[in-house]
Design a protein that fits this description.
Blueprint lengths: L10 H4 L16 H9 L3 H10 L10 E6 L2 E7 L4 E6 L6 H16 L3 E6 H6 L1 H13 L11
Parallel strand pairs: 3-4
Antiparallel strand pairs: 1-2, 2-3
């Protein structure tokens, strides 16, 4: 991984938060898409958002419809580099499975863990969903299973 610091400078000298590269996150070119997705959230997204917004889980902030490169994540916790994706029936066809696999691998390559839930889990097992999110927040070594694909 490339260092954000100039060659020959210490971290203290080179650190300039305002000018650190953010070209991969929340690109302004797709702001209109993120806004549109926030206005047209699925029922499962709304249900999960009501459970995690306003730092309801251990005081941790989640963002909705956050972009990483060309992909827009359903939910993202920057503090723990954890993405939460909800999958409805449209994610079950072979093309969607391949797309999700490629997308998830790219997001992993950015150092972000991706936790996936099927929509029914949000409605049928809300406590288990929150427990699973907390588990991944508290254990940085946990990698969500790739057997989803």
């Amino acid at each position: 991984m490339l260092s954000p610091f100039k060659k020959g400078t210490s971290e203290a000298e080179g650190l300039n938060i305002k000018h650190m590269p953010t070209k991969h996150f929340n690109k302004s070119e797709i702001k209109h898409l993120r806004r549109k997705l926030r206005k047209k959230m699925t029922a499962a997204e709304v249900a999960l958002w009501l459970m995690i917004k306003n730092k309801q889980i251990e005081g941790i902030r989640f963002l909705r419809q956050y972009s990483v490169d060309k992909y827009i994540l359903d939910f993202y916790c920057p503090q723990h580099k954890l993405a939460i994706e909800l999958d409805g029936e449209s994610h079950n066809d072979i093309h969607a499975i391949e797309y999700d696999k490629k997308r998830t691998e790219h997001i992993y390559s950015m150092g972000i863990r991706v936790l996936r839930f099927e929509n029914f889990e949000i409605f049928d097992y809300p406590e288990r969903t929150i427990d699973e999110i907390i588990r991944y927040i508290n254990d940085k070594d946990l990698i969500p299973p790739k057997s989803v694909f």
